[in-house]
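Pinned message: reference record for DNA-binding transcriptional LysR family regulator
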Amino acid sequence: MRFKGLDLNLLVTLDCLLTERNVSRAADKLCLSQSATSGALTRLREFFNDDLLVQMGRGMVMTPRACELLPAVRNVLMQVEGTVIKRPDFDPATIRREIKIIASDYMAIVALSGALREIKAMAPELSFLILPPSEDPRGALERGDVDFLAMPDIYLSPDHPSELLFSDDYRAIVWTENSRVPEGNLSLADFLDMRHAAVTHTLSALNFEGWFVKRFGNSRIVEVSTSTYANLPFLVVGTERIALMHRRLAEVFAGMMPLRLMKPPFDIPPIHETLQWHSYNDNDDCLMWIRRQLVRTMADLNTIEPAVPQGECLAVEG
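Predicted structure (tokens):
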């Protein structure tokens, strides 16, 4: 079908070529021969009067015009997918589809694992791909690379709908045989005097480490750093270290490991785990159903214990 001289079938090919930046890989994804894909690239170059992809060394790079076209073409295809192509007669018991979610190991352990078990019982043919948080989760959602973001609200896009799943607070964790920890409440002096295991990552400056340094300065001795909160219990047990982590994740590990949990000696703003989806998928029956199930199964988690200073917002997740 042609629209103002452009064969609209070529939009799918253009999207794939610009995403892969490799004719052979694009041909494989499109289930076309390499010669047919090369021919399509030639026609696209003629229509746009631009090379679109140029050889540089062993790879291909996009021209400035191609860089402009890629998000626009992806946006058009997603709009067609979300608003025109309607999956008829949605039935959870028979739907066969892969759902992609960006979520941390914390989110997967604390909430998604249980929710997906319940969803699997109702929709046995659904499969899920849980991807780690990237440097650009908003971009992944915009491009249609994923169906959902399940992340702290601070990382989400203001341009797409979202819904709160639950909030969480924090606990200090130590080995149960740590002789340096007092029997009563943990004081700030005790906390700062101990050796720490801590999480460092670059997803956002709005993380616990940045918040702590801003409030207390470099007053801790960080003996070991890691990239994920799920590592912290293993770096604490058998040592005199202390670490801070999400309460619900700490409770999971305390059920399996010799850990003692204590309230931090200062108030820490909570995290608010939120589900976001692309606005074009607002009426996708399958994704709507999954959203309802995720919100329902995580409703019991949506409480936090301590009061938090007004006006502070913190996203600390690994």
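Pinned by admin. Summary line: The two ends are 47 Å apart (CA to CA).
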